[in-house]
UniProtKB/TrEMBL annotation:
One of its GO terms (cellular component) is cytoplasm. One of its GO terms (molecular function) is NEDD8 activating enzyme activity. Pfam families: ThiF. PANTHER family: NEDD8-ACTIVATING ENZYME E1 CATALYTIC SUBUNIT, UBIQUITIN-ACTIVATING ENZYME E1. This is NEDD8-activating enzyme E1 catalytic subunit. It catalyses: ATP + [NEDD8 protein] + [E1 NEDD8-activating enzyme]-L-cysteine = AMP + diphosphate + [E1 NEDD8-activating enzyme]-S-[NEDD8 protein]-yl-L-cysteine. It comes from Quercus lobata (Valley oak). It is an enzyme of class 6 (ligase). The lineage of its organism: Eukaryota, Viridiplantae, Streptophyta, Embryophyta, Tracheophyta. Belongs to the ubiquitin-activating E1 family. UBA3 subfamily.
Amino acid sequence: MPKELHEPWHWLTASLNFLLEYDSDDKPRDETIKPLVDGGTEGFEGHARVIIPGVTPCFECTIWLFPPQVKFPLCTLAETPRTAAHCIEYAHLIKWDEVHSGETFDPDDPEHMKWIYNEAVKRAELFGIPGFTYSLTQVFVIV
């Protein structure tokens, strides 16, 4: 595979464009256009879009529309949490595996989410971090 196609969006764009055939006016022929419906969710947020090769901007051209992934250094989570998000990520990334070794966390399971919330609240109280809610836990748990 050519080096430029290693990223999934490069491959996707190249594959969709490979299927296109053009008419004499250099416009894509309708019967060769294969639309891509892209969508996803993360917590309470999500996106959906239709990419039409040769007509709309390509997948790669709109990659900047995705929000940056929020990641925290593990040392901050384990040693010096300063926000509710740090406490939630600690419960999710560190505490869950310590207590539930081998069990996969399921954000759609209310008992799992409740456990994360309770552990995060304990940590927030320990470090004096205010403003903690269950809804905030649901937003910050990223799987």
